[in-house]
Amino acid sequence: MFLFIINPISGVKDNTSIAQNIINILNDSNIKFDVIYTSKSGYAKNYVFSLDKTLYHSIIILGGDGTINEVINGILSRKDNYLPKLGFLPGGTGNSVLHDLKYLDPISALQPILNNKVKPIDVMVFQFENLIEYSINILGWGLVSDIALFAEKLRFLGSSRYDFASLYYILKLQARECTIFIDGKKYYDKYLFILIHNTIHTGKGMKAAPHAQLDDGLIDIVLVNNEANRIQLIGLLSKLYDGSHIKSKYVQYVKAKTIKLIPASDEAVNIDGDVKYSTPVKISVLQKKLPIFY
């Protein structure tokens, strides 16, 4: 039996009509399922964390990257090894994971679920001082966290809020000191931002980590140093959409099994679009941990 988790309002989208179309298709396909609608932040995580593991062999998620993140953390935080198959349907603003899977239409994304096509993918593990968080997408530090935090306060502007927030912090141009351990090797520098990826994409189709693979057992690291000025940074950010930013002299692109961030000043990081917790943080990989429909 399936559990269908619906975030009715993810980002700026109203997913109600999409959800009804999916429900009709599932019924026509004689698939047994239950439906829940999330009512607030954290609802999906708490629900899957406490549900009876004998009820559902699979979970379908209609929502954005944040909803997917909640479900994964609810499952992997359990102590009973419950590991249902997960199906992702695009219902958010960015849909970073769905861009990697090339399923940006909900009906197309439903097909591997109907056909029971499954593959295992990696999960990143974020070890903070007092807790563990999981993600299949991204962790960002520095400028990207500042932008996400400010954009959340500008939600009334819709999707353009990220453009306004980005412009503000580009003009501010704040570099930060950070000690980094990549596969145990120590580095120190000043950075504008650092991206740590399991997916290729972030935001609305930006290829921030163009060589990333969901199942290679590695994390992709993008380090942007503080030598770029404002004009150069704007040009660099514009290249995120085709992935050519990694050719810039201001960017280092590394694949690794582990990385640890120890900034000079501890601050929150951007995990799948949600700014929370505080550095230092160590990132590692659970290879091919999560079964997904694909």
How is the topology of this model organized?
Blueprint: E1 2-6, E2 9-10, E3 13-14, H1 16-28, E4 33-37, H2 43-50, E5 58-63, H3 65-76, E6 85-90, H4 96-101, H5 106-114, E7 118-127, E8 132-135, E9 138-142, H6 143-153, H7 161-172, E10 176-182, E11 185-197, E12 219-225, H8 230-238, E13 251-256, E14 259-263, E15 269-271, E16 274-276, E17 281-293
Parallel strand pairs: 1-4, 1-5, 5-6
Antiparallel strand pairs: 2-3, 7-8, 7-17, 9-11, 9-15, 10-11, 10-14, 11-12, 12-13, 14-17, 15-16
Low-confidence residue ranges? none
- Give me the Rg, rounded: 19 Å
> Given the helix and strand composition, which structural class is it?
alpha+beta
What form results from the Cα inertia axes? globular
Task: Give the structure's gist in a few sentences.
27% of the residues lie in helices and 35% in strands. By secondary structure, it is an alpha+beta fold. Strands 7, 8, 9, 10, 11, 12, 13, 14, 15, 16 and 17 form an eleven-stranded antiparallel β-sheet that branches. Strands 4-1-5-6 form a four-stranded parallel β-sheet, with helices on both faces.
